């Protein structure tokens, strides 16, 4: 996790050296310390984003896997239905072809 280096004592000394009275410099340093502490909880880091994107990617992959599994199941059902239809069409073809062949054979003989 990223860290922000803030030294309140050094900050107060810098203010003091630029002419700010010591008491004011200390109050400024305390206030800045509180601001840094308060805002550190809301800081978005690269690690945080990487973790969130990985979680998101994992959820999307799981959803996609479920959807593809559903599609695969539907295709399997359709393959079974088409196989049944092929059998039915074969039976119909045989049922039509036999009388036609019998008729042809009677004409030929």
Describe the overall structure.
The structure is a single chain. This protein has 109 residues and is mainly α. The protein has one domain (8-84). Helix content is 84%, strand content 0%. It has 3 helices and no strands. The protein has helices at residues 8-17, 22-40, 46-108. The longest helix has 63 residues, at 46-108. The radius of gyration is 40 Å and the shape is rod-shaped. The protein starts with 7 loop residues before the first helix and ends with a helix.
| Total beta strand runs | 0
Please state roughly what percent of the residues sit in beta strands, choosing from under 5%, 5-15%, 15-25%, 25-35%, 35-45% or over 45%. under 5%
Q: In sequence order, what are the helices and strands, one letter per element?
A: HHH
Number of discrete helical segments: 3
Would you tell me the overall average pLDDT? 89
Low-confidence stretches are: none
Radius of gyration based on Cα positions: 40 Å
Largest sheet: none
* First-to-last CA distance: 96 Å
Into which percent range does the helicity of residues fall?
A: over 70%
What coarse outline follows from CA principal-axis ratios? rod-shaped
| Count of separate structural domains | 1
Query: Which structural class fits the helix and strand makeup?
Result: mainly alpha
């Amino acid at each position: 996790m990223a860290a922000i280096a803030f030294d309140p004592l050094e900050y107060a000394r810098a203010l003091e050296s630029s002419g700010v009275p010591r008491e004011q410099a200390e109050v400024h340093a305390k206030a800045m310390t509180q601001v840094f502490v308060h805002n550190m909880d809301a800081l978005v880091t690269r690690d945080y984003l990487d973790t969130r994107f990985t979680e998101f990617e994992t959820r999307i992959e799981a959803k996609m896997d479920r959807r593809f599994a559903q599609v695969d199941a539907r295709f399997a059902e359709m393959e079974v239905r088409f196989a049944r239809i092929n059998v039915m069409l074969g039976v119909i073809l045989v049922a039509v072809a036999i009388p036609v062949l019998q008729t042809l054979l009677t004409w030929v003989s």
